[in-house]
Design a protein that fits this description.
The structure holds two protein chains of two kinds. Chain A is mostly helical. Chain A has helices at residues 9-37, 43-62, 87-97, 108-119, 122-146, 151-158, 160-180. In chain A, helix 1 runs parallel beside helix 3 (87-97) and helix 2 runs antiparallel to helix 4. The longest helix of chain A has 29 residues, at 9-37. Chain A is globular. The termini of chain A are far apart. Chain B is an all-alpha fold. Chain B is 67% helix and 0% strand. Chain B has three helices and no strands. Chain B is elongated, with a radius of gyration of 16 Å. The chains are: A mainly alpha, B mainly alpha. At the A-B interface, helix 4, helix 5, helix 6 and helix 7 of A face helix 1, helix 2 and helix 3 of B.
Chain lengths: 184, 64
Protein backbone atom coordinates (compact mmCIF):
# COMPACT_ATOMS: atom_id res chain seq x y z
CA UNK A 1 0.00 0.00 0.00
CA UNK A 2 2.84 2.38 0.81
CA UNK A 3 4.05 2.13 -2.79
CA UNK A 4 0.92 3.97 -3.97
CA UNK A 5 1.47 7.49 -5.36
CA UNK A 6 -0.90 8.80 -2.68
CA UNK A 7 1.96 8.43 -0.25
CA UNK A 8 4.06 11.12 -1.95
CA UNK A 9 4.00 14.89 -1.76
CA UNK A 10 0.98 16.85 -0.54
CA UNK A 11 -1.38 13.83 -0.47
CA UNK A 12 0.99 12.24 2.03
CA UNK A 13 0.89 15.43 4.06
CA UNK A 14 -2.92 15.32 3.95
CA UNK A 15 -2.79 11.74 5.19
CA UNK A 16 -0.54 12.73 8.11
CA UNK A 17 -2.83 15.64 8.96
CA UNK A 18 -5.69 13.14 9.01
CA UNK A 19 -3.75 10.94 11.41
CA UNK A 20 -3.37 13.85 13.84
CA UNK A 21 -7.04 14.75 13.58
CA UNK A 22 -8.10 11.13 14.01
CA UNK A 23 -6.00 10.79 17.14
CA UNK A 24 -7.54 13.90 18.64
CA UNK A 25 -11.06 12.69 17.80
CA UNK A 26 -10.48 9.45 19.69
CA UNK A 27 -8.96 11.33 22.62
CA UNK A 28 -11.95 13.66 22.77
CA UNK A 29 -14.36 10.71 22.80
CA UNK A 30 -12.36 9.06 25.57
CA UNK A 31 -12.32 12.29 27.57
CA UNK A 32 -16.09 12.63 27.38
CA UNK A 33 -16.66 8.96 28.26
CA UNK A 34 -14.09 9.22 31.02
CA UNK A 35 -15.84 12.17 32.62
CA UNK A 36 -18.68 9.79 33.47
CA UNK A 37 -16.49 6.93 34.63
CA UNK A 38 -14.25 9.06 36.81
CA UNK A 39 -17.01 10.49 38.94
CA UNK A 40 -17.18 7.63 41.45
CA UNK A 41 -13.46 6.92 41.46
CA UNK A 42 -10.94 8.94 43.48
CA UNK A 43 -7.62 9.59 41.79
CA UNK A 44 -5.64 6.86 43.60
CA UNK A 45 -8.24 4.32 42.49
CA UNK A 46 -7.98 5.50 38.89
CA UNK A 47 -4.21 5.07 38.94
CA UNK A 48 -4.72 1.61 40.41
CA UNK A 49 -7.13 0.68 37.62
CA UNK A 50 -4.61 1.92 35.04
CA UNK A 51 -1.84 -0.11 36.66
CA UNK A 52 -4.02 -3.23 36.70
CA UNK A 53 -5.00 -2.80 33.06
CA UNK A 54 -1.41 -2.16 32.04
CA UNK A 55 -0.26 -5.29 33.87
CA UNK A 56 -2.96 -7.36 32.21
CA UNK A 57 -1.94 -6.12 28.75
CA UNK A 58 1.73 -6.83 29.45
CA UNK A 59 0.91 -10.35 30.61
CA UNK A 60 -1.23 -10.84 27.51
CA UNK A 61 1.61 -9.77 25.25
CA UNK A 62 4.01 -12.05 27.12
CA UNK A 63 1.63 -14.95 26.66
CA UNK A 64 0.74 -15.30 30.30
CA UNK A 65 -2.85 -14.21 29.83
CA UNK A 66 -5.30 -14.55 26.99
CA UNK A 67 -8.25 -12.25 26.51
CA UNK A 68 -9.69 -10.38 23.55
CA UNK A 69 -9.10 -6.68 23.08
CA UNK A 70 -11.57 -4.64 21.04
CA UNK A 71 -10.36 -4.51 17.49
CA UNK A 72 -11.88 -3.69 14.14
CA UNK A 73 -10.31 -6.03 11.65
CA UNK A 74 -12.06 -4.34 8.77
CA UNK A 75 -9.47 -2.17 7.10
CA UNK A 76 -10.31 1.25 5.73
CA UNK A 77 -11.74 0.65 2.24
CA UNK A 78 -9.83 1.93 -0.74
CA UNK A 79 -13.04 3.67 -1.86
CA UNK A 80 -12.19 6.60 0.44
CA UNK A 81 -9.80 7.76 -2.26
CA UNK A 82 -12.77 8.63 -4.47
CA UNK A 83 -12.85 11.95 -2.61
CA UNK A 84 -9.85 13.19 -4.49
CA UNK A 85 -6.14 13.63 -4.26
CA UNK A 86 -6.16 15.34 -0.87
CA UNK A 87 -9.56 14.75 0.74
CA UNK A 88 -9.26 11.03 0.13
CA UNK A 89 -5.94 10.63 1.96
CA UNK A 90 -7.18 13.07 4.62
CA UNK A 91 -10.21 10.89 5.34
CA UNK A 92 -8.10 7.77 5.17
CA UNK A 93 -5.72 9.34 7.67
CA UNK A 94 -8.54 10.37 10.01
CA UNK A 95 -9.94 6.83 10.04
CA UNK A 96 -6.51 5.33 10.59
CA UNK A 97 -5.64 7.95 13.19
CA UNK A 98 -8.62 7.10 15.36
CA UNK A 99 -7.12 3.67 15.87
CA UNK A 100 -10.60 2.23 15.51
CA UNK A 101 -10.31 1.25 11.86
CA UNK A 102 -7.09 -0.71 11.86
CA UNK A 103 -5.46 -3.80 13.20
CA UNK A 104 -3.47 -2.96 16.34
CA UNK A 105 -0.48 -5.27 16.79
CA UNK A 106 0.42 -3.74 20.16
CA UNK A 107 -1.45 -3.47 23.43
CA UNK A 108 0.09 -0.10 24.19
CA UNK A 109 -2.65 1.97 22.50
CA UNK A 110 -5.21 0.29 24.75
CA UNK A 111 -3.24 1.29 27.83
CA UNK A 112 -2.92 4.82 26.45
CA UNK A 113 -6.66 4.92 25.84
CA UNK A 114 -7.28 3.75 29.41
CA UNK A 115 -4.94 6.43 30.72
CA UNK A 116 -6.75 9.17 28.82
CA UNK A 117 -10.11 7.75 29.87
CA UNK A 118 -9.23 7.78 33.55
CA UNK A 119 -6.71 10.54 34.06
CA UNK A 120 -6.29 13.11 31.30
CA UNK A 121 -7.53 16.68 31.56
CA UNK A 122 -8.73 18.32 28.31
CA UNK A 123 -5.28 19.66 27.39
CA UNK A 124 -3.68 16.33 28.20
CA UNK A 125 -6.25 14.46 26.14
CA UNK A 126 -5.64 16.70 23.12
CA UNK A 127 -1.89 16.26 23.55
CA UNK A 128 -2.24 12.48 23.84
CA UNK A 129 -4.39 12.30 20.72
CA UNK A 130 -2.02 14.55 18.83
CA UNK A 131 0.87 12.42 20.01
CA UNK A 132 -0.83 9.24 18.86
CA UNK A 133 -1.26 10.73 15.42
CA UNK A 134 2.36 11.91 15.42
CA UNK A 135 3.50 8.40 16.29
CA UNK A 136 1.55 6.90 13.42
CA UNK A 137 2.65 9.65 11.04
CA UNK A 138 6.24 8.97 12.08
CA UNK A 139 5.80 5.36 11.03
CA UNK A 140 4.46 6.33 7.62
CA UNK A 141 7.06 9.01 7.00
CA UNK A 142 10.03 6.97 8.14
CA UNK A 143 9.00 3.90 6.16
CA UNK A 144 8.85 6.01 3.00
CA UNK A 145 12.17 7.73 3.67
CA UNK A 146 13.97 4.59 4.75
CA UNK A 147 14.08 3.25 1.25
CA UNK A 148 12.02 2.19 -1.71
CA UNK A 149 12.05 -1.52 -1.08
CA UNK A 150 9.73 -1.80 1.91
CA UNK A 151 12.67 -2.74 4.10
CA UNK A 152 11.40 -0.62 6.99
CA UNK A 153 8.73 -3.18 7.83
CA UNK A 154 11.32 -5.93 7.64
CA UNK A 155 13.48 -4.01 10.10
CA UNK A 156 10.49 -3.55 12.39
CA UNK A 157 9.81 -7.26 12.38
CA UNK A 158 13.48 -8.10 12.95
CA UNK A 159 13.73 -5.80 15.96
CA UNK A 160 10.23 -6.27 17.29
CA UNK A 161 11.23 -7.07 20.86
CA UNK A 162 13.66 -4.15 21.17
CA UNK A 163 11.06 -1.84 19.70
CA UNK A 164 8.43 -3.06 22.15
CA UNK A 165 10.84 -2.31 24.99
CA UNK A 166 11.72 1.15 23.67
CA UNK A 167 8.16 2.25 22.96
CA UNK A 168 6.89 0.69 26.18
CA UNK A 169 9.73 2.31 28.06
CA UNK A 170 9.00 5.72 26.59
CA UNK A 171 5.35 5.34 27.48
CA UNK A 172 6.20 4.20 31.00
CA UNK A 173 8.55 7.13 31.61
CA UNK A 174 5.97 9.61 30.33
CA UNK A 175 3.14 8.21 32.43
CA UNK A 176 5.46 7.85 35.39
CA UNK A 177 6.30 11.53 35.08
CA UNK A 178 2.60 12.36 35.19
CA UNK A 179 2.19 10.21 38.28
CA UNK A 180 5.15 11.65 40.15
CA UNK A 181 4.25 15.21 39.23
CA UNK A 182 0.66 14.62 40.36
CA UNK A 183 -0.63 15.59 36.94
CA UNK A 184 -2.99 12.70 36.38
CA UNK B 1 17.33 6.92 -15.51
CA UNK B 2 18.50 8.21 -12.19
CA UNK B 3 19.35 5.71 -9.51
CA UNK B 4 18.92 7.06 -6.01
CA UNK B 5 21.42 5.89 -3.52
CA UNK B 6 19.89 5.27 -0.10
CA UNK B 7 22.83 6.20 2.06
CA UNK B 8 23.50 4.23 5.23
CA UNK B 9 23.15 7.43 7.23
CA UNK B 10 19.70 8.08 5.78
CA UNK B 11 18.65 4.54 6.56
CA UNK B 12 19.95 4.92 10.10
CA UNK B 13 18.10 8.19 10.58
CA UNK B 14 14.82 6.61 9.57
CA UNK B 15 15.39 3.18 11.07
CA UNK B 16 12.65 2.23 13.55
CA UNK B 17 15.04 1.48 16.42
CA UNK B 18 16.70 4.94 16.61
CA UNK B 19 13.30 6.55 16.20
CA UNK B 20 11.86 4.55 19.07
CA UNK B 21 14.96 5.40 21.06
CA UNK B 22 14.34 9.06 20.34
CA UNK B 23 10.84 8.74 21.77
CA UNK B 24 12.26 7.21 24.92
CA UNK B 25 14.83 9.99 25.02
CA UNK B 26 12.09 12.60 24.68
CA UNK B 27 10.24 11.04 27.61
CA UNK B 28 13.40 11.13 29.71
CA UNK B 29 14.00 14.78 28.79
CA UNK B 30 10.48 15.74 29.81
CA UNK B 31 10.91 13.85 33.08
CA UNK B 32 14.21 15.61 33.69
CA UNK B 33 12.61 18.96 32.96
CA UNK B 34 9.92 18.19 35.50
CA UNK B 35 12.49 17.37 38.15
CA UNK B 36 14.80 20.29 37.41
CA UNK B 37 11.97 22.81 37.41
CA UNK B 38 12.15 26.14 35.66
CA UNK B 39 9.83 27.47 32.96
CA UNK B 40 9.73 24.12 31.15
CA UNK B 41 8.22 22.43 34.18
CA UNK B 42 4.86 24.03 33.44
CA UNK B 43 4.71 22.06 30.22
CA UNK B 44 5.35 18.69 31.88
CA UNK B 45 1.73 17.56 31.68
CA UNK B 46 1.01 18.24 28.01
CA UNK B 47 4.47 17.10 26.90
CA UNK B 48 4.20 13.87 28.88
CA UNK B 49 0.83 13.13 27.35
CA UNK B 50 2.21 13.98 23.90
CA UNK B 51 5.14 11.60 24.28
CA UNK B 52 2.95 8.87 25.76
CA UNK B 53 0.59 9.17 22.81
CA UNK B 54 3.45 9.18 20.33
CA UNK B 55 4.93 6.03 21.85
CA UNK B 56 1.56 4.29 21.68
CA UNK B 57 1.04 5.42 18.10
CA UNK B 58 4.48 4.36 16.95
CA UNK B 59 4.02 1.01 18.67
CA UNK B 60 1.21 0.25 16.21
CA UNK B 61 3.66 0.23 13.32
CA UNK B 62 3.17 -2.74 11.11
CA UNK B 63 -0.61 -2.42 11.12
CA UNK B 64 -0.84 -0.91 7.64
Amino acid sequence: MLSSPVWRGTPAAAFCAGLLLGGMVTAAVLLVAGSLLRAPLPEPARWAVLAAGWTAVLLRQAGGLSFPLPENRRLVPQSVFRFGRHLGPLQFGIEMGTGARTYLPSGLPYVAALAVLLLADPVGAVAAGLGFGVGRALMTTSSLRFGPDGGWNDQWRSHRRVLALLTGGGFAVAVGTLFVAGLG
Amino acid sequence: MTVRAWSPLRRLAWHPVPLAGALLGAAVLVAAGSVLGGPAAGWTGPLSWLVAGAAAGFATSGST
